[in-house]
Design goal:
The protein is α/β, with parallel strands linked by helices. About 35% of the residues lie in helices and about 25% in strands. It has a single domain, classed as 4-Layer Sandwich (Metallo-beta-lactamase, Chain A). It contains 9 helices and 14 strands. Strands 1-2-3-4-5-6 form a 6-stranded mixed sheet, with helices on one face. Strands 7-8-9-10-13-14 form a 6-stranded mixed sheet. The chain is globular, with a radius of gyration of 18 Å. The structure holds zinc ion. Zinc ion binds next to loops.
Length: about 260
Amino acid sequence: MALEIEQFMARGDNFCVLVHDPDSHSTVLIDAPREEEILAALDRTGWNLTHILITHHHGDHVEALKPLKHRFTPKVFGPKGEADKIDGLDELVGDGDTISICNQTVEVIETPGHTAGHVCYYFPKSGLLFAADTLFAMGCGRLFEKGPAEMQKSFDKLAALPDETQVYCGHEYTLANAKFAVTVDPDNEALRERLTVVDVQRQAGEMTLPTTIGLEKQTNPYFRTSDASLKAALGMENASPTEVFAEIRGRKDRF
Ligand SMILES: [Zn+2]
């Protein structure tokens, strides 16, 4: 049977996701923003928490880790590059490692940029990617611990995944990202159409995720750093992809 997914908001704009495998009865939580909303989701679904996958050390992704461990004794996986910053990890994972859960193999992809040890979790059999604060719909995470060159390499890794991959992200930043993206990629028709769609979705109080790798490649400026029309709009016709990436990220920081 296919995996069942429960996506919900916590702490305002943090996304939280539970992945449930009806065959093995495993339930995986991706990141642990706040216990209250997670307990409500477990109650609603009737699922028993068995695993937690942590992407990075920021407080809004690990806050509920300790209380959840105490209550359910799940097995917790997290980035080995940030082991000293996260209490409660049972197994440390890094680039290329695999984890067996939900009757499938999960691949760990290290994506330094937002934090130095940030990891994404990819479920190839189900075509799911949990990208947390690396990749957002039409955006990318703030570069707190690494620079644009590293983050661009991280984006290259994600761009290599199949277009139909369903992407779950750490925050509902979609509309703000779209409004910024059209300022650097004004001639992108797919982006303009998407801005209209997400505007309507947000006004209706709907979640805008998951997205897909294919849609992000069309509309996310950080995936389009080699695109001629985007480069022309920035006046950077001869710049390298990393220079373009850095310029877009810098403009977003000031937007
Ligand atoms: Zn973060």
